[in-house]
Specification:
By secondary structure, the protein is of the alpha+beta class.
Length: about 400
């Protein structure tokens, strides 16, 4: 087999890998994307039809990253006629004192105040009057932020793929997992069953499969893989205005739910409602069951029955997806230079973990900028994002 040379090899052809290839292609970097499965698959973190877009975060730097991502979404929108983000607003409500993986209501309000992000505070009665919810505890409160919305995930992946290929500098190889990788004097060499490839730089964007991708380097990233359930519920009356939403409740994580409005790209006449806790936490994607937990579905259905208006509480179109999350609770995302062969390497960057759908087009740019010139922070307009917030606690495979 002959050896082909590239400027960048991207391991992982999901949303973030394709976004990275698009950003690299815009710089004229000859780029190879190696995907273990087919692109646009439902086997990892890109599974499912929709994701939430929001500006609010409990951490200022995450909210700034959301604000900075808006212009990148606009650029990506130029590569498709499909609407990538349907802007129907974001509603957070529940117990303002509760914190979760998503942050918390009071903390997010403080950050929005600091960054001058507009929002409307709401009490329980106002939420029930404006949105299709019922029987909320009287002490619940929250806010509506009008810039939030719902991401058409598969159309976003397709747009990233088309944008990358349109640069003329990107090759995408499906069904071609990496077997080995090694250092060369000028970069990296990657071997697959179909060929040998060299490049000056490498981006590992393998999501839940990150530790499999890192194994040839003798490294592992500290992640937990959540297998999570979701379901759709049939509308029983014309749909009222329903934004994307998240409810914060006590006494435990099993009281957290989120949802989406009806969309035409996923089960029209149905609304998606999901539990925001894992059915199970696994260490390897091969351990996934693919079957939603009956307990999770029952809790989901009970929430719909008790607190939502105009929905049949019978779960339909049930599924699971894999979400990689940092074991370090202080890390929302994991994005870092990859220490390989005994030293920190600025020519290898690893991204994994986090609720990153809202950052798809800007994360590719971040990765390429890190690979172009060593960075400790990235500036986008008025916002400077320190990369220390995303550092990975590196380990060795067990």
């Amino acid at each position: 087999m002959t050896t082909q040379s590239y400027d960048l090899i991207v391991v992982g052809g999901g949303a973030i890998g394709l976004s990275t290839a698009w950003a690299a292609g815009q710089l004229g970097w000859r780029t190879l994307v190696l995907e273990k499965f087919g692109v646009l698959n439902n086997l990892g973190s890109s599974a499912g039809a929709s994701r939430q877009f929001r500006l609010q975060y409990a951490q200022r730097y995450m909210a700034e990253l959301s604000l900075a991502s808006v212009s990148f979404w606009a650029r990506l929108q130029g590569h498709t006629q499909k609407t990538l983000i349907r802007q129907n607003g974001s509603l957070w409500f529940g117990d303002p004192a509760v914190d979760s993986q998503e942050g918390g209501i009071s903390a997010a309000e403080r950050v929005m105040d600091t960054l001058h992000i507009p929002y409307t505070p709401l009490d329980a009665a106002q939420i029930e009057a404006q949105f299709p919810f019922k029987n909320l505890p009287a002490d619940y409160a929250g806010f509506f932020q009008g810039s939030g919305g719902i991401i058409d995930l598969k159309s976003t992946e397709e747009a990233c793929l088309d944008a990358a290929l349109d640069t003329g500098w990107v090759d995408v190889h499906e069904w071609e997992p990496v077997l080995t990788m090694e250092e060369t004097g000028t970069g990296v060499r990657v071997v697959t069953a179909h060929g040998t490839y060299t490049a000056a730089r490498m981006a590992i964007c393998a999501g839940a499969y990150v530790n499999e991708a890192l194994a040839p380097l003798g490294l592992s990233a500290g992640i937990d893989i959540w297998e999570m359930s979701s379901a759709y519920f049939a509308l029983t009356q014309p749909a009222a205005h329903l934004p994307t939403w998240f409810v914060f409740q006590n006494p435990s994580d099993s009281a957290l739910f989120y949802g989406f409005p009806e969309v035409d790209w996923a089960h029209p006449c149905y609304v998606r409602v999901a539990t925001d806790f894992p059915d199970r936490i696994i260490t390897d994607p091969s351990q996934r069951s693919g079957t939603p937990s009956p307990k999770s579905l029952a809790l989901d259905a009970q929430w719909v029955r008790d607190h939502m208006v105009g929905l049949d509480p019978e779960p339909r179109f049930t599924a699971t997806c894999l979400i990689a999350l940092a074991q370090n609770s202080k890390r929302e995302l994991l994005l870092d230079y990859t220490p390989a062969w005994g030293s920190p390497h600025s020519n290898i960057v690893t991204y994994t973990a986090g609720w990153a759908g809202k950052y798809i087009p800007i994360l590719g740019d971040m990765i390429v900028r890190m690979l172009d010139v060593p960075q400790t922070e990235l500036t986008y307009g008025d916002y400077t994002i320190p990369l220390k917030h995303f550092s990975i606690d590196w380990g060795r495979p067990e």
